[in-house]
Amino acid sequence: MTKTYDVVVAGSGNAALCAALAAREAGASVLVLEKAPESQRGGNSFFTAGGFRFAHQGLEDLRRDVLPDISEEEARAMVVPPYTANQFYDDLMRVTEGRSDIDMAEFLVQRSRPTIVWMRGQGIRWILMFARQSYQVEGKHHFWGGLNVEAVGGGPGLVEMLLDRAAKAGIDVRYGHGAWRLHTDSAAAVTGVVARAAGGFVEIPARAVILACGGFEANPEWRTRYLGPNWDLARVRGTRHNTGEGIKMALDIGAQSYGHWSSCHAVQWDMNAPPQGRRHVPEALLPAGHHGQPGRSALRGRGRGLP
Ligand SMILES: Cc1cc2nc3c(=O)[nH]c(=O)nc-3n(C[C@H](O)[C@H](O)[C@H](O)COP(=O)(O)OP(=O)(O)OC[C@H]3O[C@@H](n4cnc5c(N)ncnc54)[C@H](O)[C@@H]3O)c2cc1C
């Protein structure tokens, strides 16, 4: 007989694995379904630098429970200014041109530091972002921009640490299993999920299903449908597996459509310039579609964002 899981999580990126670990911590039996083969696991989270933006009060605050390994001597050679909840919130509103959902933005900001500490408790090791986010003045590393901490090993390191933890916690993972359709009962409660695998469709009963399987950035047809003409020509620089099934499955059982469907976070460059003269535009600061043609953009996902 097929096992009924308390929680089935679709995806194996940072969102999915954190959700899976939190559910397991609360005592649930958990199955992670990953559409990609094992060699392509981790979604866009794998492709990141592993940089995490969160509110904190500067170096001494970080040394308490995020970066406790920094010695006194090392600390004397660093300057990490506070990044307050207000700064984080203002940055979110600035890059989204005021379109962020106020309640969700508040929640994200207020829960950002506790989440980093929780992740450390789950075995994620953090390090300051020396290479990207600091410059040296008179022998001291000065950190800037509010984005100061990354996972050891960047995105690949983050995914590996999360999956290691998942294995130790007894979470089952099935690769090559793409969540395809949700089952509901007569009261519209979710009772399971159908996964698409190499051998056909697999029915998995579950008490809850968490959809953490990305946006539709790797689906040229949906990009054109929602972002506009020529977005089918954009190049995806992250995973090829985020093609919108999670969103479709939720809409199919009556979930409310929400968010800004016609925007995305993209980077753009001038393809005609010689390599040494190519213009890289700061990703987090420009609205999609600003400068250049959509076909010269590289997509990171739906919704603009600060790393
Ligand atoms: C090049 C690049 C650099 C970035 N750098 C940073 C950074 O440094 N810091 C930062 O905060 N953000 C960064 N981002 C953004 C960041 O990657 C995303 O915001 C974040 O990874 C989203 O995590 P996620 O778990 O929601 O999705 P993902 O990590 O994309 O995970 C989605 C998972 O779902 C799987 N999946 C898809 N469909 C199905 C299905 N039907 N069934 C089962 N599984 C499915 C995918 O294979 C994938 O494993 C970057 C993005 C890119 C592309």
How would you describe this structure to a colleague?
The chain has a domain of 101 residues. 31% of the residues lie in helices and 23% in strands. It contains ten helices and 15 strands. α1 packs parallel to α8 and α5 crosses α6. It starts with a strand and ends in a 5-residue tail after the last strand. The relative contact order is 0.17. Bound molecules: flavin-adenine dinucleotide. The site of flavin-adenine dinucleotide (FAD) has 35 residues, from α1, α2, β10, α10 and β15. Flavin-adenine dinucleotide binds next to α1, α2, β10, α10 and β15.
Short description:
The protein contains 10 helices and 15 strands. It has 307 residues and is α/β, with parallel strands linked by helices. β6 and β7 form a beta hairpin.
